[in-house]
Amino acid sequence: MAAAPACRFGLWVGQELRGYEKGADGQIARISDIPRFGHDQPQRPTRDALVPTHELTSVFRRCHNYIYANTGLQKADAFHELIKLIFCKSFDEEESGHSLQFAISPAERRSTSGQRRLMEDRLGPLFDRVKERYPFIFDGDDKIRIEAKVAAYLVSELQFFSILSSEADVKGAAYEELVGANLRGDRGEYFTPRNVCNMTARMCMSLYDTTDLTSLTVLDCCCGTGGFLIAWLNNLYQVLLEQESSRPSTNTPASVRARMRVKDVCQRNLFGLDINPKLVRACQLNLVLHGDGSSNVFRADSTRLPGEWSSRAARDIPYGGADLVITNPPFVGNARIDDAHVLEQYELPRCNRGDMTSSMPAEQLFLEAALKFLKPGGYLAIVLPDGILNNPGLKFIRSWLLRRSKLIASVDLPKTTFASSGGVKNPSVLIAQRLTPQETQDAENGILEHAYEVFLATPNTAGINLRANPIYLRHADGMEIEDESRNKIIDDEVAHVHEAFAEWWSSRNIS
């Protein structure tokens, strides 16, 4: 462009699209896109100009870094300002007509008056509508707290993508990286890898007939950013898409019908709790991006009884009535519970020596807390450190668990599983079924079902090594295996455990 006097616009199309404009002074500036046919200036996009994207990670990262570098905000605060704009973008895609409010032309972006019009005439009213739609996420007096010129840059970066139409994996990967870089807590909070979330969700789905999945009440009592909830939602969508695709065709595509059913199911039956308010908001946005259910995510301490939660959480959360609890409680570090008022509400703190202990690691107490959310016969799927399952000093926990539930499956995950998030180094996933009151009473009296099968699996790989770098399948000679498109295949045995479990569960019930 610099060498061609007549060149005014340039376009780079690589892993992402980049537009450039050369001004009268010869300076070249980044723009969102080159002019469309029939125009001599790039225009604000309309609805039909939006396209799904195959790569959001670098876009989200670039936007977050721009806020951080140009506003003086801390990283977590910059993240929440970006969340507001992503909400505005998603809401605009869903509700606006042909003309979009989340849009800016290059001329507007370059002028102070254009930046001000963006904030006052479009983003401000748009965010007010977002707050009306999501009063459980944003306070009524909340505002977009970044300067107009920063907002103009962010809108120009995001405006041509359709976030809602992009693939779930694209949104999930981008959002996970953004959250992981900014909201990793110091309370033993580690984000569950997607392959573990998918494995666990699919194993739990295998426990039910597919026709029953839409009526199940599913809850994560330590939801974090919503990894397990999103995995359940995405896999439910695939089941419903298959159902809708087999039905007579209508004017509404099968994918749209399936998404509408998923949204309805999530609003009725998908619930989340977390004690960290920042993670609650992050989870709510994650659900909005993937299909919704965001209104059922609450800030609450899951170890306390509903009487100590907010009135809305106590009213809406199905405490003691969930069909499935799927969760990853906080691990190690400072994650200990030493509040006597909390401990006295549980059995485990008294199980070891008879007297109530003065403190207990969170993951141990959460095992009992999670069971309390289930109805009799409901299933618990929980990530635990291996020590709970094999440490001789924790035999009292296993003994208690066998008197309160029936074991279904135990998956000993590879040591590398949580390498990218810094989580527990010896993780397992345990699935158990809560006993009925009569079965619990029988167990206390020593009447136990001694002979039953439990599914056990020990996958060797989780797709990454201890340095969190990807690992790939290899031929016997060491060469990496490629698929038909010449892409290397990730070596991830965790991703295939659910297939063996589904086969085992099916044969078990047939026999």
What do these coordinates show?
This protein is α/β, with parallel strands linked by helices and 511 residues long. It is 41% helix and 13% strand. The protein contains 18 helices and 13 strands. The strands form 3 sheets. It has an 8-stranded mixed β-sheet, sandwiched between helices. Strands 1-2-3 form a 3-stranded antiparallel β-sheet, with no helix packed on it. The chain has a two-stranded antiparallel ribbon with strand order 8-9. α2 packs parallel to α10 and α7 crosses α8. It starts with 8 loop residues before the first strand and ends with a helix. The mean pLDDT is 89.
> Helical residue percent?
40-55%
E-strand count: 13
Tell me the Rg in angstroms: 25 Å
The chain-level mean pLDDT equals: 89
How far apart lie the N and C ends?
72 Å
The fraction of residues in strands falls at 5-15%
Question: What does the overall shape look like?
Answer: globular
Q: How are the strands ordered across the major sheet?
A: 6-5-4-7-10-12-11-13
Structural class by SSE content:
alpha/beta
Major pleated sheet = 8 strands, mixed
List the uncertain runs: none
Number of DSSP helices? Answer: 18
